[in-house]
Amino acid sequence: MSTGAKAKDHYSFEDLLACGRGEMFGPGNAQLPAPPMLLFNRIIKITDEGGAHGKGYIEAEYDINPDLWFFDCHFIGDPVMPGSLGLDALWQLVGFYLGWIGGKGRGRALGCGEVKFGGEVTTSIKKVTYKIEMKRVINRRLVMGIGDGVLEADGVPIYWAEDLRVGLYQRP
Which of 53, 74, 104, 127 is an active site residue? Predict the structure, then answer.
């Protein structure tokens, strides 16, 4: 796998696993978490010029099935994907974007503005789609991305998160 930024405009599950092992952006740089905390199966589109603000756009998909680990415990008899996991997936994508544009350092979520939940991801859902429109990108000594995200369940928007903030930090 290339350690160069912007190597591709889409990524397979195998690519995402390589990113989780630290093989994509180089040692000490952005990594995705490993399964089960990796919350998408593929990135279907990533660009540094798209989105409503012209600062970048990321779209990823997560195949939902009743055997996913969180359905067994959240909640017994009423299985629902925790909303916090959907939010985490959006942060994961902003961090990936920062590594993809060549930002240096390890990614950490810094917070977000407003979050709204208007539905649930249940075992009857087949696919979750995450969409991030980057609003601000800083790639200097400070590396930080701010974006707005939407989670769609089978094509219906159900979560909205404004001002998702992720930074990259270099450890001494």
Answer: 74
